[in-house]
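Exercise: predict the structure of this protein bound to heme C.
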Amino acid sequence: MKTAKLLNVKTFFAVLAAVSTVSNGVSAGDVDLSAAIVAPTGETTIRLYEVKYAPTPDFLYIVDFFLDEETLRFELNGVTAVEPSNYEGADVVRGGLLYDNWWKINGESEPSENYARYPDTSSQSGSGTWRCKECHGWDYKGNEGAYEIGSSHYTDIEGLYQVKNRPMAYIYGAIVDHNIPSLSEPDIWDLTKFLKEGTVDMNKYIVFSGAQSKSATGDADNGRTLYENSGGCLKCHGADGNKIAAVSVGAIANSNPWETLHKIRFGNSGTKMPAMISKGLSFQEQLDILTYAQTLPPIETEAH
Ligand code: HEC
Ligand code: HEC
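Solution:
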């Protein structure tokens, strides 16, 4: 759906009323809907993103409406002000670590109950149900990726790879909607930046189905050089990848290449394992490391 043209006059005045609840003295000419996007957020709710208001140029507004089923009119349901300048300073690597496991990164307490949004019909329970990766996948493909139907992590929830094409305020608003009180505003900005700039289409680099399924398609020889030198993997994991007893790099790189690639790029939440993005390695080099890791001798351990 697209922009201002779709908005009828009534909606325009509803937006005006909405923005005026956050700033006094609003006038019609001050509201700028030229960049606004309308999208449904539920069966009877719609949301307008990127509404601008001339007197407060530092903010974008998200305006929510619900359909009153008796009158069949959209009624105002709330306004959120978003300050896009926060995006500039946001940290994509920290966002990737929060995506894996936010409480290990922001120091908030680990949840003890299931997350209310986690489907009753799915198999996981406890704090894990609060991790972004649990519903949206290590490959960011949700129900169409490795957590597809048949997986013990299946939730039938969509992936997030495509969301990078949406405006930043859309992503920010969608994370706010998860109602996870332990996520601070800076946390949400870091996650927004990660989803906008940090994700890759893993199916392009890791074979998804067929006989070669799960094979990484980089250059293993170059990966070995990086593993042993600038990547620093050797120092902690040893030449065979089995020096840390709890983790067999060869086993995990083969059983869960998506998790391994995410962790090579962003680090491993709650450990000293560094992000190759922070070390300045290119994406191709990160993929090469994964490709080499798949050649290391496996010892069976649990993937996390
Ligand atoms: C318990 C499951 C669950 C967890 C955990 C979860 N989400 Fe979601 N998320 C959803 C559902 C459900 C939707 C709505 C999409 C759908 O209906 O499939 C959604 C949608 C989104 C969207 C909007 C996608 C779009 O295309 O409109 C974003 C962005 C998002 N989630 C980010 C996150 C982030 C970041 C985290 C971690 C802080 C997270 N989610 C954790 C269930 C979850
Ligand atoms: C500073 C030490 C250090 C460096 C350098 C390091 N790692 Fe790790 N890595 C760890 C620790 C610690 C763990 C977590 C061990 C545990 O779960 O008990 C880990 C976990 C892993 C895992 C398992 C992830 C999981 O949760 O199942 C893989 C795979 C892995 N590392 C690969 C690599 C690769 C490849 C490199 C180089 C790009 C690398 N590591 C660099 C310390 C390091």
